[in-house]
Write a structure and sequence with these properties.
Elements lengths: L1 H48 L25 H11 L11 H17 L8 H13 L10 E6 L10 E8 L5 E11 L12 E9 L7 E7 L9 H11 L8 E8 L2 E10 L4 H17 L9
Parallel strand pairs: 1-6
Antiparallel strand pairs: 1-2, 2-3, 3-4, 4-5, 5-7, 6-7
Length: 297
């Protein structure tokens, strides 16, 4: 009787194991089917997105003056070039609402015609896109804004990287340098989550009433929660008429489409030759300084 019960128990146990294994195998097949469905849906969505325009993607537009010289070997390359041209060079937040409405109409027109664009007529589409985007107005804001697009990948060293830098003041007036350069600066501050930068333009530029210069500093003020210490010190030095004391103004900064926060746009530190002259000038100033010499406002 005992042996018979053991045989029955073993049979029940074996049946349970087999049932569990069958359920597990069914589960694996089900996951595989779901995964195939997910992949299929993802591919379908990707194929749909490939014929639509996404405003958030940021790639620079080619110069409209040279579009007529462009030739394409295939319709695929031509459509890819049109797709790249339709992307806004800056974040959509930089443009006025009216400009964005025009942009949405343009993207719908290009999206509907994308499958019909050929290598022979792509240049005309690109020229139309460039002319339209170049006519857009920038949005006025409480702070001037600097948009930086790295051409050589992310900025991760003290070596200069090629960049396209656009400066938009509070009134919406813009300046763009497509051959600018950028690098990290600082010692301990360069390892902060919000690092400082040095930017260099091809020619001297004057911003926000400050003196013109090719090289400018973007101070992150990462370790100053008030973001006021450098600003107060530099402004105070200006009031005291210190030679070579840098001028500075607050700006918003975007890097590769990501908002990095408020920075202090500052004139670059003078060269060693100018710095030695500055030290002598300041020594004479301290020796002969009289409070009555301060400018009266």
């Amino acid at each position: 009787m005992k042996n018979k019960n053991n045989v029955i128990l073993r049979g029940i146990t074996t049946a349970c194991y087999a049932y569990v294994i069958i359920l597990f195998i069914s589960f694996l097949y089900g996951c595989s089917d779901n995964a195939d469905n997910i992949c299929q849906n993802t591919n379908d969505e990707y194929s749909q997105e490939s014929t639509s325009i996404d405003i958030s993607v940021e790639t620079s537009n080619e110069n409209a003056d040279t579009v007529s010289d462009i030739t394409f070997e295939s319709d695929y390359e031509a459509r890819k070039a049109v797709y790249n041209a339709i992307q806004l060079p800056l974040s959509s937040s930089a443009y006025t609402d009216e400009s964005l409405k025009v942009y949405m109409e343009l993207t719908r027109e290009v999206s509907s015609a994308m499958s019909k664009i050929t290598a022979s007529d792509a240049a005309g589409w690109i020229e139309k896109i460039n002319v339209t985007i170049d006519s857009f107005n920038y949005k006025e804001g409480p702070l001037p804004t600097i948009y930086i697009k790295n051409e050589d990948g992310s900025v991760h060293s003290s070596a200069y990287h090629n960049a396209v830098i656009t400066f938009i003041d509070s009134s919406g007036s813009a300046f763009t340098d497509k051959s600018a350069q950028i690098k990290l600066r600082g010692n301990s501050t360069r390892g902060a989550e919000k690092p400082p930068y040095t930017i260099k333009f091809t020619e001297k530029q004057a911003f926000l009433g400050m003196d013109a210069g090719r090289k400018w500093i973007l101070l992150a003020e990462a370790f100053d929660k008030t973001m006021m210490r450098n600003k107060l010190a530099f402004d105070f030095a200006q009031k005291l008429r210190f030679d070579f004391s840098p001028q500075c103004e607050y700006v918003d900064v975007y890097v590769d489409g990501d908002y990095r926060g408020v920075y202090l746009l500052t004139e670059a530190v003078p060269t060693a030759e100018n710095a030695s002259t500055s030290m002598l000038t300041r020594a004479i100033f301290y020796w002969n300084w009289n409070p009555t010499d301060l400018p009266k406002e």
